[in-house]
Each structure stands twice: as C-alpha cells, then as structure tokens.
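Message: Just now I want nothing more than another pair of eyes on a protein record. I am handing you a single protein, as its sequence and its fold in token form. As I understand it, each token names a local backbone shape. Take your time, and here it is.
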Amino acid sequence: QEKSCRLSAALLGEDSEISQEQLFELLKYAALGKCHNAAQPSWCRIYHQSHLAGVVVVVVHEMSQLHFYRFYLQFKHLRRVFRHRFTLTPSANFPVSLYGEGTNLKPQNTPQGLTSTSCECSTKSSDLQCDPIIRRYGGKKQGLTSYTLTLEERKKNDYPIEGSPGCKGYISTECDQQRTDSSPLFGLDCEMCLTAKGNEVTRVSLVDARGQCLLNELVRPESTVVNYRTRFSGITKKMLLPVKTRLSDIQTRLKKMLPHDAVLVGHSLNSDLQALEMIHPSVIDTSLLFARTEGRRFKLKFLAKAVLGKEIQCEEKLGHDPTEDARAALELAQFFIEQGPTKVAELNLEMLLTAEKLAEASQNKAVLQPQGCGFQEQLNEPPPLSKPCFLDCLQVTGQKPLLLGRQGLDSSGLCQSNLSTSNKQILQRALEDVPLSKFSIIQFSLGPEHIASHLHAGLYEKVRSKLTDMLTIYAGPFEENFCMKSVKKEFERCGPIQSLTVVTETFQPYVCIQYEVLEAAQLAVESLNGAEVAGSCIKVQRPVTAAMLDCNVLIKELELDVENEGVIYVAGLKKSLTETDLQEEFSQLKDLETLFLPKDLQSGKHRNCCFLKFQKSQSAVDAREAINGWTMKGSELRSRNALASGHLWRWIWQMNHSSGKQGKHIFYEKMEQLSDSEQDLRKKVKKLDHHIKKLYRSLQNNTLCVVLFPGVNSTHGSQSGLGLMGIKDDEGRSAC
C-alpha cells in the first residue's frame, strides 16, 4: 500500500512568521528531496517526501494577509482546507525571488489559445518581448550595418575615436564609413602582456569572412614586460626573445590588408584596438551584440559553445589562441546576421548559462578555483547582481516547472510558460496541464492593479478598526461608586487586557475593556454576561457598528477554521508561571502536542493565558471541559475553543499596538454602503476561492499545495503576505 505523505509544522505565535528563504527551503526539499542533497526545512517537516505526487504553488497577486482577513468569509474553501498557515515576511521582489531576474510584473494583453512547449532550451514568442536582444534589435532579420556600433556606442564603450584626447598618436586604418550590408567582415583578436607602460600587444590575429587566417604575428612590446600573463595569453619570455616585429609594423600591415569598407568583428574589440593604438569606424562587438541586462556580458567561450557548438580556450591548452578567438567572434556575428534576433533569443542563453554554472558547481567547486582564482574569475564575468532564483535549483534535475498565469513573469526560460487572459482560462489550463508536471506554479489575479491599490489605501484601517471592535466589550451598568479594582480582576480572568476605561456619557457608569486576544473578549461575553460583578448584575456586549453586524458569524467561522482544530485557549494563569511549570501542570492531558505561552512582543513578558494544541480534536474537547473550573496555584482557569491561535495572534497584537484610534467607540453609527469597487472585489474573491477549490480537488493525493498571498508594497504602505499549505489526503483535505 502506498505510503501517505504528511506535513508537520508548529506554527504558533512568534514561530508563525516565515521568511522567503524558509519558504524556499520547503519548496526545494519537496521538489528535490534527499536524493539531490536537499535538506528538510528548519521550520516544518515533510514525512515520506519521496512519495509526493507533485508540488503545486498557487500565487494570488496583489493580495496580502490583510486581504485574506478582510474577505475571510468569502475565502470559504481556503480557511476550511489548509491546516497550516503562516505570515510571509513582506518583500518588494517576491516574484523576482521565485521566477528570476527577468520578471516583468505588468499584465500582458495576450491572445487566447497559446500552447505550451516542453523544449528545454527554447522560449515562446510571447515571452521573447522581454528578451534584451529583441528589445534592442527587434525581431526581424537585418543586414550587418544594423549591428555595427554607432559613434555614440563606440564612445560609451571606450573605443578609440578620431580626435579624442586619449587617442593622440593613434593610427587610423583610413577605412571610411561607407559600409553596406555586403561589406566584408574580418575577425580580429589580440593577446596582451603587462608592461611598464600598461597593456601592450604581443600577438595579433586577423581572419577573413571564410575563417582563413590572414595574420598571426608575435609582437615585441616597446617597454619591459612585467607579467606575461601566460595562462591567458599563451606568451612566454622564450617566445618573444627572437621577435623583431614592432607595433608600428603591425599597424602598417593592417592598414594595407583592410579594404576601405571593412567591418572588424571581435569580442570586447575596444580592448584590442586600444592595445593596437588604432582607430577603425566600422565594428561589430559580439560582447554587445548578444545583449544582456544590467550591462552584463557573455563570455566568448560560453557563446562559442552555446551558439556554435564549439569548444575554445580549452584548459589543456597553454593560453588562448587569438586566431581561434577571432574566428569564433566572426562566426558568432555571421550566425546572428543570418539567423536574426528572434532565432538567437530563442536559444535562451541566460537559462543555458545558469544550467552550466549549476552543473559545474555541483560537480566540484574546488575545480572552479585553481591557482587561487575564484569562481567569477574563472568564468571571466562580472559578479552576479543577485542570488539565483529559486527555480534555478530545479535545473540540476532537468525539471522544468509549469508556469501558468496572466502575467509574463518568467522571461528566463526556466518554466514551461503559458499566459492567459482570465482566471477562468488559467484554471482550465491548470486542470489539463498540472497532472503532467511535477512542479507547477499557478498565478491568479483579481484584475487590474488599480483596483487592489485603490482599495488598499483604506483597507488597513478598516481591518484594524474591525479587529479593535472585536477585541472590545462594554460591561455595565454599575453603581456610581463601584470598585474598579474588582471589575478589572474579574475581567482579567478572561485574558490579558490592553486598556480599561470608564464610559461617562451614560446615565449609569459602564466600563469599556479592550483585550489583547479575541478569545478573551469572547470568553468575557460568554461567561460574564448576566453575572454579578462589583455588586451589580451586568450586561456584557460588543460595540454595535455596521462592521460588527456579522461578528457572531465571523466568530463561528473562526472556531470552525481548520487551523484552530484541536486547539484550545486557557485563561486565568498567574504571570509568575513559566512555560516549564505549565508543561508539568498540563502533562496529564491526553494527546497534548504543543503549548504556546503568548508574551508581549515589546517587553517579552508572558501574558496570563496560553494555547494548547492536541493531536486529536476529541482530546481537545475533553481537555477544555476538564480545565474549566481547574484551580492552578490558587487561580481558577477558564477555557474555550481557540479563534486565533497561530499566525493571526501575532498579527492582531501588532495591529492592536499600532497607531490609530483605540479604546473609545460609538454604540451606533450610520450604516455605510459598500463602495461598488469593494462589492465587486468580494464577488471576485468568492469566485477566486471557488477556482482554487476546483483546482485543489483535481490534484492527486499526496500533492503538496501551497497558496501564497505575497504581500503588498505600494505608496500606501507595506503589508505582510500569507501562506497556506497542506498535503492533500484521500478526503480532499490537507494532511497534518
């Protein structure tokens, strides 16, 4: 019989905030497992990972933890299915971290009916628009004149320019700029040694358009050689001893050999021309031709292998062969001109480079660092601007994840990407394609970004205000000279109090109490309404506002929330009790799994309540009944079902202590009409919840499913994200 996979995570209180790195730990282990040296995540545990049927990540863009709880009742499926929930540390580049540096966050108007591809080294035309080669040259084939550098480009890239201050004494090839698409191409490459003067040419090679070598000459430098750079140049002291050819001789020969419309081709050709002290107006630089982002450049050795299928600059050879390099640069330019930018972009060179680096790193890092040279020096490339994205890790296994969505987020080619025009279309594609993929990322969106950003402006205050109302109770009436100390003591038995004030606007005194946890306020309503406190029979109720009309429904749904299953709240503890004391006191309770003792996140002091999580729901029910009426160290305990035991507890505490109006409430306020945009958003959220439900039900058993609300970073502020996760079991729920 097939083993069932299981996910275990103790996400209570302060342990419930997870960073992106911790999230990627989980996804990496789930996708790769021990056979690829992936480690169990530090904050949760997957049992029988090798039996996982697949991993599905659902990303709901433009949404945060705030949105989930604002529309909590609409997310009926999510809150009833996913047992594990965590706060996701906010980040401005969550999509970049997951998909890679080519991320484009703008929605695309893409025609329907796009088909997927399983080709490992190609990219669909819909994804090519983000490719730097297409952005620079367009997609159509053009003649060679379209790829020669302009005067401004030569100045920008440090090419010798006629009349420039730094080019005094330089020799011009005397070629004019009357080049055409039929002008002859010549490949040029030089090797240099370091002398007292700087870099001086010690070898020059020139090849014609057919690759035939026209010039391959050693050159004696004018100044004393400081470093022959034999490892790269191949030049030794012995080789230069008999050489009589000087730089001026090479300059003269090149002037005679090059026709008036010659186009020179080379890789970082500016360095060669600077060393030759020559000026030539028509050049194609292959390090710029095969464009990358952020000013980075591909290495000639890599381009030769990836584009031409040729191995150059082999380790067994002593130094570089300039003729080989000149010929490789020439053939690269010819390939680009003949095939056109689109064909070159479809090679997806960035993905090939990533795969090559990972393959080399996984074989032996030590091999990449001979003679004290670092990895980046070996590759002869600038240091990377950011860490590899998470999807890079899957390249080691040859896996190519499925990426579905309405946003063109993956221009790196690491995924089988499909763009769709609606959530409904995304769902249909997911139902067809997810069963065929071991790792899938499904992106949903609520529509135009301006809707989410417009609502976000007032969303935080609405949610904070509603939570404050739910944490607040009014008690009374009391006698004129009632004892406030007795009232505080009685209500404190329900849980930690944030503030306690006397309401003086009424005929008889009332007390307004704001608690720190939802369970305390609810316990006060349930146990003290109609009770005698401080000599008065009192009524306990919450504020009556438009937002609070569905409070009872919300409380009931929170109790039924799968995250709170098997968890109870216990109040009335003495603050002097430590976690060890409580573990000992509650050790007799059957199936007790975890104890969480909340503390003030500023002072670090423990509160007078705790949460107990049990392995079985019935054990939690039995414990709750047993605890009610218990006396511990002279204090009577009270207990009820948990409402916000996990990540929500920490978030409520933070919102409760944020700036804004607190404590004072109006009993009756004018009923506000929901704006059309918010009504529309509620409908969209409900439909989105239904889409995720349908997708989840279609998944195979033993599939890990993670739903992510990445968080919001906008001009209105930053909001933490939210993650929900579970492994689907036979009953269609997430296995704990």
